[in-house]
Design brief:
heterodimer, A: mainly beta, 7-stranded mixed β-sheet, 4-stranded antiparallel β-sheet, B: globular
């Protein structure tokens, strides 16, 4: 069964550094997402992306964050100037469509630790 | 405001006991409700959705619009059901965004 894959599985970075988290969505999917989960808290929506544009973003997704689909297969989340509170599990997800009956498939997550 | 509430962080039952994982939501329109499950060291995966009205791995969930609830039930818990369960809501935004509850850890003891 096709899966969403994410790299790296775990990254440790120093505060203030830039981080790029990478994702390969399922190949025929058109909608891409990033979610994050701070330890002990709920999974939170960050951003959705369709047709090379952000279609929706949350309050969390400020100017520090950006997303890109640099080629036909990868979908990246960039965090500029990381802060301690950016430490979290970041999940990439993808779906064929939106709306009723749609299924969103998640990757295994990238655990980011900012020190 | 759109919100999903799972009041229990941990639910511990013995094998063979009935299970009910509670989920309440707040949404002004007609949401689609889901249960996602995360087994140890695995990814989040869809367990079931309210529009399918199906039973998956013995689990069922009925949408109660009057009580704004979508509780997950199973009559006889198995040890392999031990996992983290998340209730989630999708609204009418057409962007596919999901709003998750806090999650409930189900622990099934032998």
């Amino acid at each position: 069964e096709p899966e969403v894959t994410q790299t790296p599985s775990h990254q440790v970075t120093q505060m203030g550094q830039e981080v790029i988290l990478r994702c390969v969505p399922i190949s025929n999917h058109l909608y891409f997402y990033w979610y994050r989960q701070i330890l002990g808290q709920k999974v939170e929506f960050l951003v959705s992306f369709y047709n090379n544009e952000i279609s929706e973003k949350s309050e969390i997704f400020d100017d520090q964050f950006s997303v890109e689909r640099p080629d036909g297969s990868n979908f990246t989340l960039k965090i500029r100037s990381t802060k301690l509170e950016d430490s979290a599990m970041y999940f990439c997800a993808s779906s064929e469509s939106t709306g009723v009956g749609n299924t969103i498939y998640f990757g295994e997550g990238s655990w980011l630790t900012v020190v | 405001a759109q919100r999903v509430t799972q009041p229990e962080k941990l639910l511990s039952v013995f094998k063979g006991a009935p299970v009910e994982l509670k989920c309440n939501y707040s949404y002004s329109g007609s949401p689609e409700l889901f249960w996602y499950v995360q087994y140890s060291r695995q990814r989040l995966q869809l367990l079931l959705r309210h529009i399918s009205r199906e039973s998956i791995k013995g689990f069922t969930a009925d949408l109660n619009k009057g009580e704004t609830s979508f509780h997950l039930k199973k009559p006889f818990a198995q040890e392999e059901d031990s996992a983290m369960y998340y209730c989630a809501l999708s609204g009418n935004s057409n962007t596919g965004k999901l709003i998750f509850g806090q999650g409930t850890t189900l622990q099934v003891k032998p």
